[in-house]
Automatic annotation (TrEMBL):
Pathway: Cofactor biosynthesis; biotin biosynthesis
Annotated function: Converts the free carboxyl group of a malonyl-thioester to its methyl ester by transfer of a methyl group from S-adenosyl-L-methionine (SAM). It allows to synthesize pimeloyl-ACP via the fatty acid synthetic pathway.
TM spans (from-to): none
The protein, known as: Malonyl-[acyl-carrier protein] O-methyltransferase
Encoding gene per record: bioC
Amino acid sequence: MSDFHFDRRQVRRNFGRAADTYEKHDALQREVQSTLIDRLEVYTPVPEVVLDVGAGTGRGSAALKKRYPKAQVIAMDLALPMLRQARHNQAWLKPFARVGADAYTLPVHDRSVDILFSNLCFQWCEDLPRLFAECARVLKPGGLLAFSTFGPDTLTELRSAWAAADQHAHVARFLDMHDVGDAMLAQGLRDPVLFAERYTLTYPTPRALLDELRGLGANNADAGRARGLTGKQHYRRMLDAYEAMRTDGVIPSTWEVVTAYAWGPPEGQSRREGRGDIASFSVDKLRGSRRKTPFD
């Protein structure tokens, strides 16, 4: 699916270090989150269990609990310092649970989640078959998967500026919307809908953008990234290349946001894997289905 891999330990470290500063820099994340929550109106039942994957400091979990006060809302994140910060967003009368977990291995039962929500987290999961197989596993039949993620045009100016400085990977790479959609279908998720929107944020200097990325924990965690400190000359060349893109007195930064929805598969629906199609049923569903033969 992809020719790059994220270092999961580095992703955890980056976001753990940014727990105290994240909410100072998350204006885009909050905007996308608000829109994603508003679009949950496509799910009309009253949910019992809502799972927020990559919950960060819990702003989204708090908003979900406010929207669904009778539901059990669970905030999950890879970085425990983020979840510790999330307690500050807890409402006394509307608390949500906080659980440390990886999106690849969600610690919940099969077919137990009504809404699986994730705001700008899945871009750190390049193994899409594994990710969406896990989403399909935990969703109830007809449950809703709603998520946003970054597309490959995100930070294109910064990537171009670094390319003018050296040949190393300094900016995270993200997967194309079509690859995401194909992977959702392959794992049995039903009727996926995806669309992309572009946001252009502006900064007074390239360093201000870099400071924001660091404050968000969105540092490069590509397993193939160059190790060690970047040389001053290379860093200076990158800054100069980015300065050349200044428009109307500001530094532009493009963020491609992919929003997607899909529904949990019915029990027993097959999904494609390397060995062919696989279908699963509970034991209860098989009881009484065996016909007697003359040899019984």
